[in-house]
Amino acid sequence: MAELKTNFHGTWVDRITCKQFVESVTDYFENKLTAVDRTSFEAHLAECSGCPTHLEQMRTTIASLGKLTNGLPELHPKARKELLAVYRKWKAHS
Amino acid sequence: MYIGQVLSERQSNDNFATDPPLDSDNQLVEALREGDERAFAQLLDKYHGSMIRVATLYCRDEQVAEDATQETWLAILNGIHQFEGRSTLKTWIFSILSNKAKTRGQRERRSVPFSQLVDLETDQNDPALPEEFFNSADSDADWIGWWHKDNHPTAWQNIPETTAFISEMRTKLETALMTLPHMQGQVIYFRDVLGYESQEICNILNLSETNQRVLLHRARSKVRLALEQYFNEV
């Protein structure tokens, strides 16, 4: 069985598993981990060979999603005209 | 309508682009109430595209999403005099959209009600990654919960920067978003695609902060997995 504590910068902290690490990534990004959990998270990052890659890929995923705004559907000129006509009608009645 | 009228309208439409934009919510709301077409055009250009996407994530059908978005614009006009500025204009617009999309989506799909969707999608028994990614007592009793050797993450290398690849990756991402459970899809779209603050998303979708974060995390994990499968094939 893996040890329950690990030494991180000279302090013994709770050792978490990769599974627990993977579940905490968004909380880590959003700064929602407690100080204790954050230390365990960072200690795991320092001693695991797979999780740094996983974390980096989560960052890449988020960054790639951020680029999708470049391709938002444009409002079709005909639909735009119709909506503006709706606005005019609304204006006339209000 | 006369041709001349159409042309002059088109010209006036084009002029909107060169006018300085109305910056604050207050300015926009005031202008809308007073009947300033420029304000409405500005909102259309700013939000219509992302509204269609958000509605599609919920309704799963572009035509239904278009209808929900049209309905939203009408509701905005009908409600603008009552808008009190308790939330931002953006939050208000997207909450109306979210309600319209829910109603539409449920009518078309006869699916589970919204309240149950959140429960279903934040259920405890839905790990970010499938169980087999990690060691169990059967695979390696010394390292339970650590990466299984067959699923150890490997770096995504040689990601080409070619136009063809970028457009393919975009398609993969969009497909991945569309296959997410409804609430997860909307939360990740607001947060990671549109860059909204968590609090705004909670207000728009009427979610608790914790549920919002759980939905976001599961969505991100699934999209990462879809990208991983894609990179493994490249």
Report on this structure.
- The complex is a heterodimer of chains A (94) and B (234).
- Chain A has 94 residues and is mainly alpha-helical.
- Chain A has one domain.
- Helices cover 62% and strands 9% of the residues of chain A.
- Chain A is built from four helices and two strands, in the order E-E-H-H-H-H.
- In chain A, helix 1 packs across helix 2 and helix 1 packs parallel to helix 3.
- Chain A is elongated.
- Chain A starts with a strand and ends with a helix.
- In chain A, 22% of the residues are buried.
- Chain B is mainly α.
- Chain B folds into two domains: 3-111, RNA polymerase sigma factor, region 2, helix turn helix motif (Rna Polymerase Sigma Factor, Chain: A); 115-233, Winged helix-like DNA-binding domain superfamily/Winged helix DNA-binding domain (Arc Repressor Mutant, subunit A), CATH 1.10.10.
- Chain B has helices at 3-18, 25-33, 37-59, 62-79, 89-109, 114-121, 163-178, 182-193, 198-205, 209-233.
- In chain B, helix 3 crosses helix 4, helix 3 (37-59) packs across helix 8 (182-193) and helix 4 packs across helix 5 (89-109).
- The longest helix of chain B is centred in the C-terminal third of the chain and has 25 residues, at 209-233.
- In chain B, 34% of the residues are buried.
- At the A-B interface, helix 1, helix 3 and helix 4 of A face helix 1, helix 3, helix 4, helix 7 and helix 8 of B.
Task: Tell me the number of structural domains of chain A.
Answer: 1
Main β-sheet of chain B: number of strands, strand sense, barrel status? none
Oligomeric description of these chains: heterodimer
Main beta-sheet strand count, sense and barrel state of chain A: 2 strands, antiparallel
Helix proportion range of chain A: 55-70%
